[in-house]
Design a protein that fits this description.
By secondary structure, the chain is an alpha/beta fold. A three-stranded mixed sheet has the order 1-3-2, covered by helices on one side.
Length: about 140
Amino acid sequence: MSVEFNHTIVLSRDREKSARFLAEILGLEVGAPAGVFLPVTTANGVTLDFLTIDADIPMQHYAFLVSEEEFDEALDRLVAARIPIQADPHGNQPRRINRHDGGRGVYFLDPAGHGLEIITRRYGADPSSPLNGVTEDVPGAV
């Protein structure tokens, strides 16, 4: 059997709010509750199981590989919802996307403070791309 990533638990202050946020931005569905978990399943079958806790939540990073069309749709949703975006994980390039490996990428935070990223190309897909290091302004972004 080959090893596959199956699921992870995503800690949140409000599992409904966090799960719905992710599902809405990525165009996914929130599944039926499974005990204390509220699942969101990606196209490759990986489930993010959102769990409400009443404690400090350390920031985690979750990256999602999407098509160019899905990227456009998600970016439009982020801009429309006035969710701050940035081209880098440290927030040094606000209101911009990156062009790593000839694709596009953007970072933003979820309601629990987790760092989310959507990308259209796998890291290292094109290390010689002339677009590496390039960022682009996103009109209307905050």
